[in-house]
Design goal:
Layout (H helix, E strand, L loop, with lengths): L1 H54 L4 H30 L6 H27 L9 H34 L1 E2 L6 E2 L2
Antiparallel strand pairs: 1-2
Helix pairs in contact: 1-2, 1-4, 2-3, 2-4, 3-4
Amino acid sequence: MRVRFLVAVSLVLAASTVRAQAPDSSNAEYARALFLLRDTTEMVRGELNRFRRDLEFAGGTTVLNRAERLNEACGRLRTAVAQERGVFQSARLPSASGRNATQGLLAEMRRLDAALRTNCLDGLAAEGPGEWADSLKAWGPYHSSRLQGRLLAYDGAAATLARSIGVRLSQEGPGIVP
């Protein structure tokens, strides 16, 4: 009888341990996706800053080269957003605030994807008709500021979700908040 009791207690403890680990594995997957997207958005931000810096004074060839590199970075971010969206769509977090933060992040991911297409891949395409470098110089500030605003909105949504799962998205590297 005592053995059965100990076995039953062991099974209950094991089951509760498995249940307790399930959110942690979801958190780990969320954290992995958040860090990957953080790093990819930073690549876009870096190329965007280089593009903007060179708009006013650089020659046409440099502007076209910067636009090409920015487009490549935007394409990589669009791919990462599409690939990582599935991680967040399942909304496996136990808390209501975590689920709300996940929904907010998904909405910002959709808006970011649209901005990457409209304001980067189309609006700042490396090729175009006529004197394209002049067109990029003229339209670059508009498209780049719209893209920058979308990146900032995404950052806010990602930070909200990270806080809700106890993850620090600092530039020093990944970390779990105790």
